[in-house]
Amino acid sequence: MAEWSERTARKRLSQLEQAFERCERLALASQFASVIMHEVNNYLESITNLVYLTKLQTNVPNQVMGNMESIEQQLTMLANVTRRSLAFHRSQNEIRDVELSEIVQSALKLHSDAIAKHGVEVEIHFARSAQAPVREGEILQVISNLLLNALDAIPSEGGKLAVQVAREYPFVKIVISDNGHGIPDELAEKLFEPYVTSKPTGTGLGLWLSKRIVERHKGVLQFTTARAKEGSGTSFSISLPASLAA
């Protein structure tokens, strides 16, 4: 009976993991689409304004040519946005060599409104050619989760966030650090276990799922934390096997 109950519990936990992962992926995809649409709208507004100006300046050939060149530049950037979104969609379940700094930049862009709302100072250090074979969507999901956790921990004033992508052969490491209140010892001991959370509305599954995703990529997710009066904060690091070509 005990063995049957244990198998049932494992099965239910696996089903819950899959359902939660799907929900997180859908939420992230929705947010990503919102950011893309915002970028597209900005370019379309710029093109619309340039077309309007061109109609008013038909008797000034040099100005018309200048406007047309600007429109061409805006269309090129718009095409880049659509190509980037299509490439991201196609790579969701495909393992390929990816520049990890690009994924981090996408995550920062996704949460730019929240970062601005918190008035957080962001410090970025990206190494060159820090590539790893990953499922881009999954790693974006992990980084997004870590960024949101950091924003929740950061003080309302003087909040700082440091994001680093470094090469430490044979790994590539992503480090996300905050100057928040730190993690209590009793919570830190079981932080990656399911249903462990300090948030009133949290599920306690975000870090557990993030760790499983990183391990599926043959990587390691670790953290250090401090709760001193001076120098408190938490740092999460994702170590992933580097691309052979990196």
Secondary structure elements and pairings:
Layout: H1 2-56, H2 61-90, E1 96-99, H3 100-110, H4 112-118, E2 121-126, E3 131-134, H5 136-153, E4 160-168, E5 171-178, H6 185-188, H7 206-216, E6 220-226, E7 233-241
Parallel strand pairs: 2-4
Antiparallel strand pairs: 1-3, 4-5, 5-7, 6-7
Structure description:
This protein has 246 residues and is α+β, with helices and mostly antiparallel strands. The chain folds into two domains: 2-90; 96-241, Heat Shock Protein 90 (2-Layer Sandwich). Helices cover 55% and strands 19% of the residues. The chain has seven helices and seven strands; from the N terminus they run ααβααββαββααββ. It has helices at 2-56, 61-90, 100-110, 112-118, 136-153, 185-188, 206-216, and strands at 96-99, 121-126, 131-134, 160-168, 171-178, 220-226, 233-241. The strands form two sheets. A five-stranded mixed β-sheet has the order 2-4-5-7-6. It has a two-stranded antiparallel ribbon with strand order 1-3. β6 and β7 (233-241) form a beta hairpin. α3 (100-110) crosses α5 and α5 runs antiparallel to α7 (206-216). The longest helix has 55 residues, at 2-56.
